[in-house]
Structure formats: structure tokens, C-alpha cells
Amino acid sequence: MTKRVWFPYAQMKRIADPIEIVEARGCLLKTKDGRELIDAVSSWWCAIHGYNHPEINAALAEQAGRFSHVMLGGLTHEPAERLAGELVRVTPAGLNHVFYSDSGSVAVEIALKMAIQFFRNRGQREKSRFVAVRKAYHGDTAGCMAVCDPDDGMHALFDGVFPKQFFVDTPRGGIDPPTEIVAEDAAQLDTLLSQHHEQVAAFVIEPLLQAAGGFHVHSPTYLREARRICDKYGVLLIFDEVATGFGRTGTMFAAGRAGVTPDILTVGKALTGGVLGHAATLATSKVFDAFYDDDKSKAFMHGPTFMGNALACAVALKSLEIFEREGYLEKVARIEAILNERLPAVSSPRIRGIRVIGACGAIEVDEPEAYAGLQTFAAKRGVWLRPFDRNVYAMPPYVIETDQLHRVIDAIEEWFSNA
Ligand SMILES: *Cc1c(COP(=O)(O)O)cnc(C)c1O
Questions:
Q1: Which of 67, 92, 351, 374 could cross-link with 261 by S-S, CB 3.0 to 4.6 Å?
Q2: Which pLDDT score is estimated for 159?
């Protein structure tokens, strides 16, 4: 390894040699030394169709044969227009406007900026702060870092650099907690907003599954309570569905399972089926209308160079078409059933929690050291896993074959039985 590529989330002095991939097909990553690894990570949760899908490749080539990219400033094109219509159709009713960007972090930045300007345009300049949830992960850029977990999160090092935001505790009790637990957690949000709502623009949450902060699951009831409390105090509600969007938790969007329409919703990761980087921030008409004016200064001054990239939009359209035509939500339900049947049977004194929701299963241990060596151990068994911190997880492509999924779980199970 040359060290020319500076790898993510890694101490470059101690990093193990990354595995070189030369080809990928279906759920298999083919390595330079001739091995095949079942991808249990979906390349950071985006490759929902696996790799090298012929229809997606064809859609990409077809669009490239016309044009790959034109700026969205003053120009438009059919893929961007059609995809906006499709995103409005598949997200909860009321989210009628789509602002494109090129990554999940930027989609979240846009959501935060949009929320602040929403209030500025209405003359409420003091509403410029956010409430977020402990254990949240919303991306790696400056504004996002400030709404990630302030203590254990990977950005704690930057404490004091970015504006301090407010935090509520991670909602407890999983997907179906006792009523009094939800009431207590909701009361905490209510109390915080009762004291600070005059400064708060929005409450931001990854609905149902706080993913990269450690796979914490909360209830649809909590989200309905959050909607009610935000309305009570005149605070916008932002759902960051960059990880949960497009079926990961079992419904097309987590918001749908809760029956909640947030004011702003972000999508990314699986939007293009993992083929190209693209993202979007959706807003309700209420939000959009605060910008819609004869007054130029009320316009939203934002415009990533690659927003609405035609290749990305064409691929996203094809990805969604396949998703719906092939009944991907049933594939997610099948993965969930297998994870639910097998993960709880994995046992070790080191295990602190086992969580399954949709096509996501995670096992949390007492100390990250419990997973030292697991990646190599799994790779020897033909499985690609990437444990982080105290969690190992499977978030496979939705097209994973049943025996491939069993092999992923076998590797995790064997790790614990050998340990
Ligand atoms: C991954 C992720 C992001 C950041 O997306 P990038 O495309 O990596 O910038 C934001 N929010 C959530 C919930 C995520 O899981």
C-alpha cells in the first residue's frame, strides 16, 4: 500500500492492508487474489441490488449516450424532473418539493440550512439552533457534526468548534416499548422545547433506526409524539432517512411506518442503488412557501455543482423501478425473518444487545476489543463484514440469496463460539 490513498476512519499508521476488489457481481465482491466475499455491508448500506445489475448498467449507458451532466442552474432535464416526481410519490404525502445534492451529508446540511432560513424568511431570526438525539449520526461535514452524538460520537474531538446544539436521550425500549417509556422520552423533548423553542429551528432524528451511532431502534409512537411536540412549539421536524430510506427498516421510508410526515426529509445512500453518489432533501409546501416570494433575498441560496446529475437521476429512476417491480419490501421481510430467527440464538457473555429491524441486524458487545480480528476471520469464511466500535452488523443487499445470508450469520456465530 502506497499511503497515497488516505483511507476513511482509519489510523493510517496501523491500518491493515485493504482488500483489493477487481470485480463485483450480485452480492459477491471478487478480490485480486481470487477470492469471493459475500458483501454483508452493501458498501455502506447503499448497494441494495448488489453489483453489476444489467438493467441499471443499461440505464447508465443510455443516459451517458445522451449527456452525463448539465448544471441545474438555468437548465433542467427529464431525468431530474421525473425523479423529483417519483420521490414525491414514494415519500409520505405532503413532501412536494425536491432539492438535489451529491451526498447524504450535504442533504443534511441543506435540511439544516433550509430550516434556519424558513424562520428567517418569516422574521424569526432567533430560531437557528437544533435539537438532536444522543447516539445520532448525520454525516461528517461541519453542520452535521454538530448534530451527531456529542460525547461518544466520532466527532467528540471537535467539541467547542461548531455551534453547540441541544440533545435528548436516545429513545428507549426498541420498536414496541411500554407506553410509559415513550411518555417519559417524549416528556424530555417537550421539556427541552418548552424552555428553548424560541431558539430552536428544528428537531432532527434518524427515524426508527439510529444507524451509524450504534444501531439503536425506537418506536413509531415516539416519532408521532415528536411530530405532536414539534407542532406544539412551532419547531420543524427533520427526518434523516439517508440510511433508513428505500426499505432498509421494512417499509419504503421509516416515516411511513410511523404515519408521520416530517417537514423536511433527506435521502441518499440507496437512492441510486449504490451506483453513483447522489442525495435529495424533500420539503413540504409549508417549508417551500416560506421561500416562494417576489423578494429575491428569500430565495434558497444553495446549489451543489453536481446536483441533479443526469446519470445519477437516470440510475435512481431505474433503481426505484426495479425495487417496486421485484417486490423488494418482501425481500427485506425475508431477510428480517432470517435475522430474527438466527441472531437471537447467538450467545456469548460478551453480548450486550441484539437488534433486528428490516434488513438490518446488529450485535453489540461490551468492548470493541471483542471484535478484534473478526474482519479477517469472516473474510477467511468468504464473508465481508465491517464491525465498528461495539457493533457487528449485517445490512446486506436486498437480493442476497438465502444461503448467502446464512453464511454471513454462520461467520458471526462461529466467531462467538470460538471466542
Ligand atoms: C451515511 C449517513 C449520512 C451521510 O451520508 P454521506 O453520503 O456519507 O455523506 C447522513 N445521515 C445518515 C443517517 C447516514 O447514515
A1: 92
A2: 84
| Cα–Cα nearest to 253, from 321, 203, 316, 207 | 207
> Using CA atoms, how far apart are residues 157 and 166, in angstroms rounded to an integer?
18
How far away, in angstroms, is 302 Cα from ligand 1 center? 19
| Mutational test site, ligand 1, from 238, 266, 269, max ligand atoms within 8 Å of CB | 269
Taking only the tens place, the pLDDT of each residue in 125-167 is: 999 999 999 999 999 999 999 999 998 767 778 888 888 999 9
DSSP letter string, 268-301? -GGGGTTSS--EEEEEEHHHHHTT-SS-GGGS--
Res 379 pLDDT > 90: yes
Residue of 41, 10, 12, 6 whose CA lies nearest to 379: 41
Q: Residue holding cell 468548534?
A: 161
pLDDT average, residue stretch 372-377:
95
Q: How far away, in angstroms, is 268 Cα from ligand 1 center?
A: 7
Name which residue sits closest to atom 15 of ligand 1, judged by CA.
243
Ligand 1 centroid, distance to 368 Cα (angstroms): 22
Q: Which atom of ligand 1 is nearest to the CA of 269?
A: 7
Using DSSP's 3-state secondary structure scheme, residue 354 falls into strand
pLDDT in tens, 190-247: 999 999 999 999 999 999 999 999 999 999 999 999 999 999 999 999 999 999 999 9
The three-point CA angle 18-23-29 to 5° equals 60
What is the Å distance from ligand 1's center to 137 Cα? 7
pTM: 0.98
| pLDDT (average), residues 383-407 | 97
Counting Cβ atoms within 10 Å, is residue 225 exposed (0-12), middle (13-18) or buried (19+)? buried
CB count within 10 Å of CB 407 equals 17
